[in-house]
Amino acid sequence: MDMLKACTEPFSRFYRTHEALNDVVKLSALSFKIAEPVVSNEKEHPTKGMLKRPVEPWGFVWSDDIPATFSEAEFSLARMSIVQAYGSFENYLTLTRGEVDRWRHHRGIGSLEGKTNDENRNLSLSQFCKTIGCSFDLFAEYESLFEFFQECRNCIVHRESYANKRLVELADSEEMAKCNNNWPFSQSNTLLPDWPVFRADEIIALQPKHAILAAAVYYKIAKCIDTFIVSSFGPEGMIFMAIHHSLCADDHPSRLSSHTSYESAILKFLTNRYRVKDATRHEINVGITELDLHKKVRTCFNSLYWNKYKV
């Protein structure tokens, strides 16, 4: 069983949301760029009429300054996307804690110390890492950007997108500049986007590219945490997780249409969803035996798929 590129169930869900958000931001920003010259140059263009018409669902544009309208649309897209990116990452932390708790409970270790479930959302990232035993140093290089976007999210949600003094301090800090300079560039040597000037009690004028950067920061941190979780779980823990989500979980995130054996259902999750390579039915059966889950696995499998094969 090769777990070099393996991931957990929480990360699998997080990754899908992350990719979808990136696609939406890029497509929306591109649509704005294409639509702005069309709306600005065509006096009778129906799109301009939609923007100006004071009826639902379009609302009312208070001026004919079309470029300003599109700029504000880009700002709004960025702000909404930053909030969604942070919410997705927060959800990943909550689900990861639940996954670790479930595995610890099965092994008779007991639940994690500290806050639980909804209360866990108030934990700082360093506290979360301490709770699950993960070293914060794994992603210390992203700490400044993480704190910056976390404060951005708080200002957007709680201050109607007006910057506070803390955000201005973070934006101007030496740590932020160092984080910018040390960002791991891609093969194309793409630089980080330029930052606007931040002033207290003024609107945060971030662009869609900053929202993509925020999502990238959350992704890199989540990946570091997930690599640690996979390593700590080992093959047994990964099989246990696949058993739970393929057969026993209430939500069944990716319920399979039909299978002739429970090994097939578990193997499908391990290889397709959790990216475990070279897993075999024999390894799964050995894992089920060592986990003492044969009875539970058969019961759950029969309740899901048995009627499909009854004659």
Q: What's the shape? A: elongated
Helicity, in percent?
A: 55-70%
- Total domain count: 2
Largest sheet: none
SSE pattern, N- to C-terminal: HHHHHHHHHHHH
Distance from first to last alpha carbon: 36 Å
Overall description:
The chain contains 12 helices and no strands. By secondary structure, the protein is mainly α. Helix 3 (66-106) packs parallel to helix 9 (208-248), helix 9 (208-248) runs antiparallel to helix 10 (262-273) and helix 9 crosses helix 11 (281-291). The two termini are 36 Å apart.
Give a quick precis of the structure.
With about 300 residues, the chain is mainly alpha-helical. It is about 65% helix and about 0% strand.
Task: Map the helices and strands.
Layout: H1 9-41, H2 46-52, H3 66-106, H4 117-120, H5 125-132, H6 143-158, H7 165-171, H8 174-181, H9 208-248, H10 262-273, H11 281-291, H12 294-305
Which short descriptors sum up this protein?
311 residues, 64% helix, mainly alpha, 12 helices, 2 domains, single chain
